[in-house]
């Protein structure tokens, strides 16, 4: 019996399967506990495991004993931060974005179609001097903020609209062709629902269209500000105008911006004009009024994690999904509009979707900022972390506030 007993004593706990929420909480906990001996982490969504980058065998063993999968990598967090700092301090170009990718253990730089040959050569020269810690790739399209022009969803493609707004002309609201007088947010009855104003009576939700002075954006999440109802949206939308309505004609007052931050970050908060108005903590899963219906209740906010599966709701392209591909991303939209600390994803979006809700199940995660590509060919989209916006404004969301991730982390300790 002795050999069997010894074998049992030598068994080491290995990686275990867990939910994305539990993986995110454990990743934060292990990073805090092991400090500079870790180099980022991500969720393997297929295997349902947390993968932790570490620098030595001793740390790897501790990580494995906690139930995560350890992976020994070469580049430390401090070394990768130096690469990011080099880009931020003048080595980058307009039309580029960069972030630390825990899957490759490198700083990945994306260059859009506006980056010319000379600038492309400059980026590659910088990468060559980074000892394999930086990669440079092209991305289709142009990095841009995803606000729309008025209520017809026009994008850089011209009068044909942005994705789902094609052919809407003067009749639509950028939310579908030929909606006519029942279209989202237009006409005498429009209120973003295509049902004679029912949605406005029930409260405007995350993903619904909001309008101001020829600009269309999307509502992110309804919140409470000092006990009063309000909502979050993108900062570049908040900079465009102070007073917003739920219809293109401007007849249905919605809210007034009280604080707006852009560039550097990208969020704005508004208080509702009617302090007694309903402001359900939910995302509209049918913001285009296509009859699919349904809402997603939002009970709190959560930190994003690389590999996290997410959805986005917006007033141009409706609901799309994908996953988080990087955190703490920097995007240079050009013209001095640089934003930091963004969530990078492979979720598509188009002009008019700015400010819209990104969420994972019942947790608010991000506010749509901008990106490249579209929902036909795909692309990258960047989001303002909701948790940062809540902390900066003092607003609360759902029953879980902004501390959902902390609560889940405590349960693992």
Automatic annotation (TrEMBL):
It holds the Pfam family Trypsin. It comes from the Bacteria. Residues 145-199, 392-413 are annotated as: Disordered. The keyword Amino-acid biosynthesis does not apply. One of its GO terms (biological process) is proteolysis. Disulfide bonds join 217-237, 348-375. One of its GO terms (cellular component) is extracellular region. Keywords: Disulfide bond, Hydrolase, Protease, Serine protease, Signal, Zymogen. Residues 231-389 form the Peptidase S1 domain. One of its GO terms (molecular function) is serine-type endopeptidase activity. Residues 160-197 have a biased composition (Gly residues). Residues 75-128 form the Peptidase S1A alpha-lytic prodomain domain. The keyword Mitochondrion does not apply. The active site is at 236 (charge relay system), 266 (charge relay system), 354 (charge relay system). Belongs to the peptidase S1 family. This is S1 family peptidase.
